Amino acid sequence: MAIKPICLEKLERIVGAPFFSAHREDLVCYGYDATASLHLPDAVVFPASAQQVSQIMKLAVAFRVPVIPRGGGSGMTGGALAVYGGIVVVFNRMNRILEIDRENLIARVQSGVITAEFQRRVQHDGLFYPPDPSSADISTIGGNLAECAGGPKAVKYGVTRDYVLGLEAVLPTGEIVKTGVRTAKGVVGYDLTRLIVGSEGTLALITEATVKLLPLPECVMTLTAAFDGMDTAARAVSEIVCSHTVPRTIEFMDNASIRLAEGYLHVGLPVDVGALLIMEVDGRRDEIAGLARALEDLSRHLGAVSVSVAETEAQAQQLWQARKAISPALFKLAPHKINEDIVVPRNRVPDLVAKIDELRSRTGLTMVAFGHAGDGNIHFNIMLDKSDQTALEKANRAVEALFDTTLALGGTISGEHGVGITKAPYLRKELGEAELALMRRIKDAFDPLGLLNPGKIFPE
User: Fold this and answer.
1) How confident is the model at residue 374 (pLDDT cuts 50, 70, 90)?
2) Could you tell me the pLDDT band of residue 460, with boundaries at 50, 70 and 90?
3) DSSP-assigned letters across all residues of 361-403
4) Distance (Å, whole) CA 262 – CA 416
5) End-to-end CA distance of the chain, in Å?
6) Which of 46, 188, 343, 391 is the most exposed place for a label (fewest CB within 10 A)?
């Protein structure tokens, strides 16, 4: 049911005419995310403060209208889609870095701040915010919080939730709450901060976060190690992480992704090898060269056919551009993509790689694998034309088989993309009925009317 005109008029008054739209051309722009699925909202608003967000939520309650929070729209599971229509709340006006406290190594940021811009700003002050999703140049802090984003550095530094000390958030009732602390410790009451982080916008609308920072490492060195086969590279990852030289990053690319990235950017990647590991070590300037040499020697011992060290910052940036180019380059293979971000214990990555090889051989489908091998997080992609019903059915069966294998290996079906709408049908594979019922009770306690980001996480 469309929103009543009186509700639209009140929405426009809350944020002002320039920051409200119910025109179809605008609704289309905010009706999709990286899943490429289109779900038109009834209205789009751009609030400037938590108070405006509160007013929007109270109005939505009065008219029983769904509310969908949205950051940069880079999500991979449909978390920002208005699957039942309603009001999409876009946070890009709330984009201020409110405080950087160098003495206590914390910062306060609004949810619309672009992740990479925040990282550059604190780096200017000699500080470091490690969470670094591949979408950092367009994704927002609020979106990262909602999905508990990870990234390559998670192997050493952890994921977004490990850096969140406190939040300002608007509940589905319109109440503005503050959770958490500014201190290194704090155990008063339930940990509402961790409950909201990763809840995919289904419990509250995050308007501000207090995050912890680290001193910026003095030096970073980037290495690439080439292997004849994916199985050898996968086995090497586990050994490297268990060594005394722990990289901050271990990314892997299979042959298909190497060829795609090289064809896209032409940076000199070795296209004739079976797999490539991109690794980084960081630390004090007087110790980093020794760490890099130790990692190079260990890689060769574990079967690398070649190892190279980026000599300049520009060379290192080229490697990361190539790694981040894989996703857009995939569409050279086919018009559509099924993208999963499964995770297994590091020592089971070789088993997962073997399953992917078996599925590729058995189905004849085009499959590409890359990702964060250092923490067992594999981005698995099937490229196809979804108008080919036979291929689509094969692909769906392959995804289900891969999920079953992932769970049997002690893993999870999503490491950083969340559940959204795309993984909701598979949720019962990983969670039992008791766990799902508890999650639903939590959702009902926060959102008794079910208006905040409906249709996400829970199976229909």
Assistant:
1) very high
2) confident
3) HHH--EEEEEEEGGGTEEEEEEEE-TT-HHHHHHHHHHHHHHH
4) 26
5) 19
6) 188
* pLDDT of 213: 98
Mind listing the pLDDT tens digit for each residue in 286-308? 999 999 999 999 999 999 999 99
Q: What share of the chain is helix, strand, coil (3-state, %, to 5)?
A: 40, 25, 35
Cβ burial of 270 (10 Å; 0-12, 13-18, 19+) is middle
CA distance 282 to 125: 18
Q: Strand 43-45 and strand 20-21: pairing? A: antiparallel
**Tokens 């059915």 belong to which residue?**
393
Domain boundaries, the chain: 7-90, 97-215, 219-327, 333-418
Do 333-418 and 219-327 fall under one CATH topology?
yes
Q: Confidence class of residue 1 from pLDDT cuts 50, 70 and 90? A: low
Mean pLDDT of 347-358: 93
What is the DSSP code string of 225-285? EEES-HHHHHHHHHHHHTSSS--SEEEEEEHHHHHHHHHHH-S---TTSSEEEEEEEEE-H
Architecture of the structural domain at 97-215:
2-Layer Sandwich (3.30)
